[in-house]
Design goal:
The chain has 328 residues and is an all-alpha fold. It is built from 13 helices and two strands, in the order H-E-E-H-H-H-H-H-H-H-H-H-H-H-H.
């Protein structure tokens, strides 16, 4: 548990001076057309989480090459996100760097797998694509106070439980460390946000969750159980992307048309959006676990229920509009 404690302590101790430093350097997120905030707010507050996760990776037992992959992914994406927060990076250059870092982490992840060379190459490619895709998806979804910190906490606990079920000591420790770091960060962000995660935070958390997911899949955990903590984020990003493409919008440009953002436009507060999306993610996690514990009929029922939850979530803005509903 030293790894878990260390991550939480690093974030709790380092966050106040980090906020002060970001203000001194004027690393501020200014309100704009796609923003959900109205006052300039420091960004980059996720840097202590990245550092805490790296400390946890050193202290956690039984990491091996997959543990090294965790550290490489968190460290690389965290540094890339920090540079983007401080200076801003061109989108293409940023994507090229993301691909390079993901390839390195993916290669380390598949080295331990007893696979033929050509299968291992395909697995590494799939893992690299997954890392780049999910890191960016997690970053896209970090748009209201507390939402990504809450999902990191939920995902960390869920993946720690699944790793413990597979007797993966490193995965359990890393997952709980992520939850501890996110929990220590939330008081600074969930209510009146005094700091945002920034790219350094969303990139490093996204990388941590993505690597833990690959470890679990490689250890034989069913895909629907692994998908529980990340399904809502992935569904929202994919659904929003296809809507924008079908409408002929410039889908690479910044926007505020994600489902959770449309909830805010309908009158829901940041806290209500965070609580409800978090509750749905917890439900998806429980449905994934139900599929593990039951027989085929239970598993199919749980899978269909999970798809139903996602369908209701994705269709909710239209339902709200039709019913004229606003948050109480």
């Amino acid at each position: 548990m030293w790894a878990v404690l260390a991550c939480g302590v690093v974030v709790a101790v380092a966050e106040p001076p980090t906020i002060a430093l970001l203000r001194r350097l004027t690393v501020l997120d200014l309100p704009g057309g796609r923003s959900s905030h109205s006052v300039p707010t420091p960004r980059g507050g996720g840097a202590p989480i990245a550092v805490g996760l790296l400390v946890a990776a050193v202290l956690a037992p039984g990491g091996g090459t997959a543990g090294l992959a965790f550290a490489v992914a968190v460290g690389f994406f965290g540094l890339l996100g920090l540079l983007d927060d401080l200076r801003g990076l061109p989108a293409i250059f940023r994507l090229v760097l993301q691909a390079a870092g993901s390839a390195a982490a993916a290669a380390l992840l598949v080295l331990r797998l007893p696979l033929p060379a050509f299968v291992m190459a395909g697995a590494a490619l799939a893992a690299a694509v997954w890392l780049v895709g999910f890191v960016n998806a997690f970053n896209f979804m970090d748009g209201v106070n507390g939402i990504s910190g809450a999902h990191a906490l939920i995902g960390g606990v869920a993946y720690a439980c699944l790793a413990g079920w597979r007797r993966d000591g490193f995965g359990a420790a890393a997952g709980l460390a992520l939850a501890a770091g996110a929990g220590a960060f939330l008081p600074w962000n969930a209510g009146r946000a005094r700091v945002f995660l920034g790219d350094v935070g969303s990139y490093s958390i996204g990388a941590a969750l993505a690597v833990l997911a690959v470890r679990l899949i490689a250890d034989g955990v069913p895909a629907e159980a692994v998908a529980g903590p990340v399904a809502l984020y992935l569904a929202d990003v994919a659904w929003t992307l296809q809507r924008r493409i079908r409408r002929g919008e410039r889908w690479l440009e910044p926007h505020r048309s994600h489902v959770y953002q449309r909830w805010c436009d309908a009158g829901w507060s940041h806290q209500e959006v965070t609580l409800l999306t978090s509750a749905l993610t917890v439900l998806l996690c429980l449905l994934g676990v139900a599929g593990l514990l039951g027989g085929t009929a239970v598993r199919v029922t749980a899978d269909l229920a999970g798809l139903g939850v996602l369908a209701v979530y994705l269709g909710s803005p239209g339902l709200f509009a039709q019913a004229g509903l606003r948050a109480a």
